[in-house]
Write a structure and sequence with these properties.
With about 160 residues, the protein is α/β, with parallel strands linked by helices. It has helices spanning about 20-25, 30-40, 55-65, 85-90, 130-155; strands at about 5-10, 45-50, 70-75, 95-100, 120-125. The chain binds 1,3,4-trihydroxy-5-OXO-cyclohexanecarboxylic acid. 1,3,4-trihydroxy-5-OXO-cyclohexanecarboxylic acid (DQA) binds next to loops.
């Protein structure tokens, strides 16, 4: 299925007003509409969700995995703490690209470790809203390659 989930975790609903020196002045709605435009142009069904609750994000990753959809995941602070999200990724087999707006490695030590990086397909960070756009383009490319491989195996 040509589907992508754009998932944003805690406090990302505050983008635009939240620490603009770190996260910029663009809102989450700006990011979601930029990805929606790309999805429409690429013929991808896009589901965009933001939640401040870990369990919601776990459920959404599982849902994406069941559907064979790709996932652009900015787990916010859960990145650094959530074994549950990591298990949702491995357990559902979801194809996930982890993104961050800020360069977490140039920030506090507690942001340097990601629970999910070892189990995602790739990580894009520090590029502002562009992190999401690059993740989208990468997912589309990977999903295309994956489809070709599956088809050639059947033939
Ligand atoms: C973030 C980085 C996290 O450390 C932080 O908790 C966030 C946002 C980012 O996009 O830069 O909420 O994921």
């Amino acid at each position: 299925m040509n589907a992508i989930y754009l998932l944003n975790g805690p406090n990302l609903n505050l983008l635009g007003g939240r620490e603009p020196g770190i996260y910029g002045s663009g809102s989450l709605a700006d990011i979601e509409s930029s990805i929606a435009r790309r999805a429409q142009a690429a013929g991808i069904i896009l589901t965009s969700k933001q939640s401040n609750h870990e369990g919601d994000l776990v459920g959404l990753v599982q849902e994406a995995g069941r559907q064979g959809a790709g996932v652009i995941l900015n787990a916010g602070a859960y990145t650094h703490t959530s074994i549950a999200l990591r298990d949702a990724i491995t357990g559902s087999g979801a194809l996930v690209i982890e993104v961050h707006i800020s360069n977490v490695h140039a920030r506090e030590n507690f942001r340097h470790h990601s629970m999910i990086s070892p189990v995602v397909r790739g990580v894009i960070l520090g590029l502002g809203a562009m992190s999401y756009e690059l993740a989208f383009d990468a997912l589309v490319q990977i999903m295309k390659e994956h489809k070709h491989k599956t088809v050639s195996r059947i033939v």
